[in-house]
Design brief:
The complex is a heterotrimer.
Chain A: H1 25-53, H2 59-67, H3 69-102, H4 108-116, H5 123-134, H6 154-179, H7 182-190, H8 195-224, H9 227-232, H10 239-248, H11 253-280, H12 302-328, E1 329-331, E2 335-338, H13 341-347, H14 352-383, H15 388-400, H16 403-414, E3 417-420, E4 423-426, H17 439-464, H18 467-475, H19 480-491, H20 493-509, H21 525-534, H22 538-563, H23 573-579
Antiparallel strand pairs in A: 1-2, 3-4
Helix pairs in contact in A: 1-11, 1-14, 1-15, 1-16, 1-17, 2-3, 3-4, 3-6, 3-8, 3-12, 5-6, 5-12, 6-8, 7-8, 8-11, 10-11, 12-22, 13-22, 14-15, 14-17, 14-20, 15-17, 17-20, 18-19, 20-22, 21-22
Chain B: H1 14-18, E1 27-38, E2 41-53, E3 58-62, H2 69-77, E4 84-89, E5 92-93, E6 104-107, H3 119-129, H4 136-149, H5 165-177, E7 183-187, H6 195-212, E8 215-220, H7 223-229, E9 232-237, E10 240-245, H8 247-252, H9 257-262, E11 267-270, E12 275-277, E13 280-285, E14 288-294, E15 306-309, E16 314-318, E17 325-332, E18 336-343, E19 346-353, E20 366-371, E21 377-379
Parallel strand pairs in B: 3-8, 3-9, 6-7, 7-8, 14-21
Antiparallel strand pairs in B: 1-2, 1-4, 4-5, 9-10, 11-15, 12-13, 13-14, 15-21, 16-20, 17-18, 17-20, 18-19
Helix pairs in contact in B: 3-4, 3-5
Chain C: H1 2-25, E1 27-28, E2 42-47, H2 51-65, E3 68-73, H3 76-85, E4 94-99, H4 100-108, E5 112-113, E6 135-147, H5 148-154, E7 174-177, H6 183-195, H7 200-210, E8 214-218, H8 223-230, E9 235-239, H9 240-248, E10 254-257, E11 265-273, H10 279-289, H11 292-295, E12 306-307, H12 331-350
Parallel strand pairs in C: 2-3, 2-4, 7-8, 7-9
Antiparallel strand pairs in C: 4-11, 5-11, 6-9, 6-10, 6-11, 6-12
Classes of the chains: A mainly alpha, B alpha+beta, C alpha/beta.
Chain lengths: 580, 382, 355
Amino acid sequence: MTLLLPERAPTATPPGARRRRGGDPAIRLLIVVCVLLVAIGAAIPLIAVLATAFAPDALPRYAEFFTSSVDLGILRNTLVLGALVGACGTALGFLFAFVQTRLDVPGKKILHVIAMMPIVSPPFAVATATVVLYGRRGVISNGVFGLQYDIYGLDGLVFVLSMSLFPVAYLGLLGMLRGLDPAVEEAAMNLGASRWRILRTVILPLLAPGLVAPFLLLFVEAIADLANPLVLGGDYTVLASRAYLAVTGEYDLTSASVYCVILLVPSLAMYFGQRWWLNRKVRTTITGRPSGSVHLITGWSRWPIYGLALLVAAVIVSLYSTVIIGSVTKVFGVDNTLTLDYLREVVAGPGVEAVLDTLLFAAIATPIAGVVGLMVAWLVVRHLRRTAWLLDLGGTLGVAVPGTVLGIGFVLAYRPDRYIGDFLVFPSLVGGSALAAGAVSIVLAYVIRSLPAGQRTAVGALTQLHPSIEEASTDLGASALQTFRRVTLPLIRPALLTGLSYSFARSMTSVSTIVLLVTPETKIITSQVMSAASTGRYGVAFAYCTVLTAIVLAGFLVIRFIVGAGAELHRTATSEGQQK
Amino acid sequence: MTAAAHVEAPITEPADALRPESGSGHLRLDGLTKQFRGRTGTVTAVDRVDLDVLPGEFITLLGPSGCGKTTTLRMVAGFEQATGGDILIDGKAIGHLPPQRRPMAMVFQSYALFPHMTVAENIAYGLRLQRGQRSKDEIATAMRMAVTSMNLVGMEERSPHELSGGQQQRVALARALVVQPKVLLFDEPLSNLDAKLRTAMRAEIRRIQKMFGITSIYVTHDQDEAMSMSDRIVVMNKGKVEQVARPGEIYTRPTSVFVADFIGHANFVEAAPERIEDGVATLTVLGRQLTVAAHPTVAAGANGTFLMIRPETVRLTPVTSSGNGTVLRSTFHGPSLDYEIETAAGTITATEQGGDPSEALAEGTSVDLTFDADRAYLLPRD
Amino acid sequence: MVSIRSRRLAALSITLMLTASAMSACAKENAGGDNSATDGNVVHVVCGATEDWCAATTEKFSKSTGVKADFVRLSSGEALARIKAGKGSPEFDVWYGGPADGYSAAGGEGLLEPYVSANASVIPATYKDPTGLWTGVYVGALGFCSNKKILAERGVAVPQSWADLLNPKLAKEVGMAHPSTSGTAYTALWTQVQLAGGDQAKALEYMRKLHPNVLQYTKSGAAPAQMAARGEVAVGIIFSHDCVATVEAGFPDLQVSFPAEGTGYETGGVALVKSARNPVSGKKFVDWALTTEAQEIGPTVKAYQFPTNPDAKVSDKVVKLPTIKMVTYDATVAGQAKSALNKRFDAEVAQAPKS
């Protein structure tokens, strides 16, 4: 089942797949809930930003922007970074997914775990560890190889962002490769095609829409990323960090909004581009009548591919080892004396408040994001027609809109109390004086930021699920919600599992929106990490990251325990042999 | 649906437990219409379809792809919302009900078995949804009966993907039957099976349907399937019903050139009736004057009417000189031998049952072509 | 039928948006005024000092006065932005730590409440605002934080002047923060203005010359110390106490030096936020921050700034200010020029190509 196959427009679904069930009030209620959440969490803040960016006093800024070679350079930098990270990250994701599903090699489970690791830590940790290991005085680059490689700038950013973001592509492609009807490959094999030829002429073209999706996702996330350009950017300035500087340094919301709008254009262009692209090609592979079985590659050709994957895995392991070692040594690479001071500060000192707060908020936000994402996907794919794209778009805003923009939107939209006359209709959500000391807005931001993950995985899975399976259930007397619970949900459970896990990890590690929303009473681990690292306290930053990673991994186990592992839909060649 | 009456049903008589309540299953379509609004305008997929299906009757919706048969079926099931007309079961309008509230069950083209459930779970699925009304024992009993009558004993714990196509088909059928629907719907259920299995399953489906006496609507584009299974056939074309009749009548007395052409093979010879009396037309074909049955709408002297001649009613006699036809080619089909004959009225196909290919008439042979006028039928232009 | 319902949904969405817009029109800001009556015996601090210092300070304050205290650590520019964003309904009561330039800029925008603490009388006049907008709690001199090992590799001596930093051998070897976010970097920038006799253009010209040698303008002012410590850069332009603290953290290769031309300094401030929700507790915090008790916390958490209270004990590790050459640094003037000068810096220096 495809995990990250993104949205498809109404016309893409087979006739009858999307229809209304006017009589079902549950569906109607669901629609209202989803629309409200998306409106409050994403649409209104975005509108607040747009309103500021298109206010009369902002308009001259555009002319300035498009005539200034410096500003245009920043725009070019942003796009180049997005494209490179999209390409590298998707390639890495495909490499790992291919090894996982098609190679007969040992240690695939460990490889899977390693490929998932970047999801569970803030990108900031990777950047810092990269500097420590592969920087100018890197423990490995300089210490082992004697190089003095200047990692600051585009190359460093592409490396760090690809390493941090590729699991998104990996998960999507893994699902797609697993969901590909093996009969198609068997057919090609049957026609005498070699393994390599099958990859080139069958698998890749079939996956093409799926390759576009992660590319886009990585592109958008890369150009929205904030922490890495701040650490590793060198003189390579991008729009997101420029906008951030405008807000945090100058509180120039007008300029920030203008940068945000210019940043939004490529994001949205990409988004609609891929929608159009996916509309042209639709493949439904789970029909309820599976056929064929997966054949694993056993020849010598698997070893170079495997070796490449191992190398990447080794780099990932080295980065995360640095985080862990860095949290228990005084100054890793300079003074390797063991110390527990940093960890103590986090779990038993001033940091414990942030740990508990973050955990609480993420625990509230994750199920909401996971379930709402699933519901939005279900409504979009199965129940809505003309308005599907609107809800779909709304649900995706959390990832399409850079976190900084969303944070600014929250500040603009929800800082003041809203009155009609003297009657308080909507209390302030942002800031220390707000409702629940700003916790509401933090949870809301978490939900909106992590909602798209669940939604995308679910849309992908649902699109591949043949509608007649659900129709069969309805036909036998199940209501829409019964069908969802008994048939749809179990079948897309792997997607739900991924969605929830990813939501949780995203909540726990989200930085850019949150740093604008933390208050004295609501401390968040990631903003503590940023604070610690930006004041040079790497040990504490690493300690926070270590604790954070541990929490996220524990969270995965809990989610897996609650949701259950996914259903295996395809046989492997060996098990089929035993059956016959 | 209440199941109280079936509690004591003995296992040896599965039919009782699965048979719908007596006197039910009368399905009526009343001006059923479906319009899709597309980018280029409105498309009428189903156009004012009227149909009366009697309890226990097996009706086939037959037609080329895109004729609206599947849309009609899906409207009956409730998967598509009709834009006009209504659907009635036993006199009660159900057009406004969602699919799950309609007393019907469907067998899908793709079977749509739940891949995450075993055979037993698949079959019991519909029953479990009625848990409020059924005890665990009842569910188990009904499930066992379905398994028995569908020859699925021993496969209860298997996954759908561990079954053969025919077995999957039977599970899908069992799953639909076990909820005791008033109407059973089939959406080209055999199109994924190989030819032999398909023929076997036709008989199997018909047997079970008769055993339980369930009103059934069966959608197919395979006229052979329709002819061999149906009580009546509904031939559809471009969203409209062309003809509703028993298979024999459809074959011998089609109401249009389209139906005649779609059902079996037919030769059409343009012929103007000279006289029509009591539905019998007098006309001249290939130089011979004949009397043939005529469609009621054909009027005397009408132009552009067509005489339908089935190939198997054509007889060929080789002649040494001046026959009314010449052999163009012959094709051997096993049970029959087909000829294409060039005549003054165009190319006519003739079928010789049990013909021996080694004794086939050679190309260019001059023949005298006659046909059984009793089995010919005069049709109006479409 | 389908489209009717779809339209209804679209209408619902649009209604929601309109409601939102309408609501923004009704946004009402707290009119300000005196909140003394509703003081919650708690103080929310936006803290510009290091995390440790902030934590230790708020803790000690609570212990001494019985008033609860919590804090968020933000860089100078960020803190200013947050206070500005919360204008009218502030989330913070007190701003503590960070260069007074920022306080002065905030005061200029009417974000701070003037308060002359009774304890402020002992603080030298150069370290406080005459109207009580802010009062100094510590002083720290700007300096160079050099990694001796790296410099030796490059064959460059420890820089002793601003001119030394322009050495082409130090290409991409200098670390400095961005003055928009970092008070440290702004102090460095304003020092250039002072050295140029108040000529901003000349100061920016120096910065442009320095630009090819700067690896990256970091967000936080203290970060270049860490970068120098790791050898990512050879020299960081930072407050000398941050460099000392980094040496303490385990980087013995670092060495502090001061420019011969003269250097700038920061006066770390404390101020009351305007319309604070807990003004009584806030004032208590300001009073307490000026005491010797508060000002002697620094060295216990590796913060080696010079206390403004002359009676406070000075740790051995603290740089003795009288021994270095300082420029005249008027935080009020610097603060007023801050926003405009930072914009010029960003446009004319930070984004320029390096070759």
